[in-house]
Amino acid sequence: MPEPEQTPDPAAARYWMLQLMRLGGILLVIAGAMMVGGRLPAPPVLGYGLLVAGVFEFFFLPRMLAKRWKSPPE
Predict the structure, then answer these.
(1) Which helix (DSSP H) or strand (DSSP E) does residue 27 occupy?
(2) Neighbours of 25 (CB within 10 A)
(3) In 29, 40, 50, 59, which residue has its Cα 20 to 30 A from 22's Cα atom?
């Protein structure tokens, strides 16, 4: 008996995209904090930039994308 073909769910793909963006934001914050703390050989100014970019990516970018992806009211 053949299995029915499953079409990819766009909602699931968007959910995982938002989660990956949040993970990327966390990684940017960690890298920036390590630069500011002197654990990574990079200028602290770059670390502060990564901190700001990571916070933006974690908190604001997923909301902006979710608004953009929202279905128009019928």
Answers:
(1) helix 10-36
(2) 20
(3) 40
